[in-house]
Amino acid sequence: MKPAKPIVRVVEVMKGGVDIVDGMTTVADALHNMKYPETRTIIVDKRDDDDEFGVVMFRDIAKRVLAPDLSPKRINVYEIMSKPVVSVDPQMDIRYCTRLFDSFGLSRAPVIQDGKIIGLVSYTDIVLNGVARQDK
Does the structure show a pLDDT above 80 at 131? Predict the structure, then answer.
């Protein structure tokens, strides 16, 4: 009988750093102040406890600001964000995470625990970090 593959959790492969900005931040300021540009993602913070997180990816900026030749200094992130975000639990098995991504056409998602964003997971993280862990 073949031994079961170990379960690799999202928390084991995710990036811990994520940029979170207020919705009124301009696109230019959000990009200028990014600490984690390799994520290619900006999370838009909740306005209050009853609100939801939003997300802006670099492709959104390219399509909705650069292509129509708008000024990034005049566009606020709330104007181009997607909201609400589809998020994942840190204890989710990466196999289910990839199925979720496929079902919703996602390439990355914030990882939320107890209502707070603790990281970001992408297909790249899952493939580069998850496959190696499954082979152990």
Answer: no
Note if the pTM is more than 0.85: yes
pLDDT in tens, 64-96: 999 999 999 999 999 999 999 999 999 999 999
CA-based end-to-end distance of the chain: 18
Burial class (CB in 10 A: 0-12, 13-18, 19+), 10: buried
Cα dihedral: 40, 50, 99, 58 (round 10): -20
Is the four-CA dihedral 95, 98, 102, 104 of positive or negative sign?
positive
- Residue whose pair of structure tokens reads 């999370």 in the numeric block: 43
Look at the block and give the residue holding tokens 């838009």: 44
